[in-house]
Amino acid sequence: MNVKLVLSLLLFTIGSAAFGQEKPSAKAEKGLIKISVMYPYAEGKTFNMEYYETKHMPMVAGYLGANLVKYTIEKGLASGLPNQPLPYMAIGTFYVKSLSEYQAAVGPNREAIRADFPNYTNVAPVILVSEVVR
Amino acid sequence: MNVKLVLSLLLFTIGSAAFGQEKPSAKAEKGLIKISVMYPYAEGKTFNMEYYETKHMPMVAGYLGANLVKYTIEKGLASGLPNQPLPYMAIGTFYVKSLSEYQAAVGPNREAIRADFPNYTNVAPVILVSEVVR
């Protein structure tokens, strides 16, 4: 192969890779299962984001192995409706490939996970299992 | 420059690009504002996912312009806690750069958005504004 051909192939490869990754998260996430752990806001309820981000979420993520695609953390700021209270102080979300694998991994560690709750919050979470449609 | 140098530079560029994009969504999303529109489940409440995905969400997304980074749709499957009802039938989420720009864009279209609700659901949504921490 001559140099021009090699360069052309390389540039084509770069171009294809860039094009294929145009919307990486949207393509990669469709069909995944989300486990969203939502901490409701209420008077007197507390949440330590620093502990949650540096200790609790990494601990739980560590149980999930290769089934875990990614996890996210968000901090509640406000209700999107006027004159409504903040719905949730924080939400932690695990994106996994298989719900049954998630359940099998978390099951034996449920007590350890629950025992860590008082280290960062005094509210019981709501947990939603959902499927990424888009 | 000789051919080896050109090829080395090209390969370095490819390598750097690939490394930089290892976790594209996580890096790109931190600091973004999420507006999560959550439709609670309750007896007798309905939700038409097909209409929501093909008509309602694209309509709202169309108001948001370049401020919108992406939007996602998820379908509620179950509570993550035993013997608890499904918390939400569906959640639609807009990831935006600026909350004030979002509000300015949605404000004049609020009535049109609300008028579309009965086309796919009979439940009033809970709306959470949050910040992506990770």
From TrEMBL, chains A, B:
Gene Ontology MF annotations: oxidoreductase activity
InterPro entries: Dimeric_a/b-barrel, EthD_dom
Domain EthD residue range list: 50-121
Signal peptide: 1-20
Keywords, sorted A to Z: Signal
PANTHER family: BLR8190 PROTEIN
Protein name: EthD family reductase
Upper taxonomic lineage: Bacteria, Pseudomonadati, Bacteroidota, Cytophagia, Cytophagales
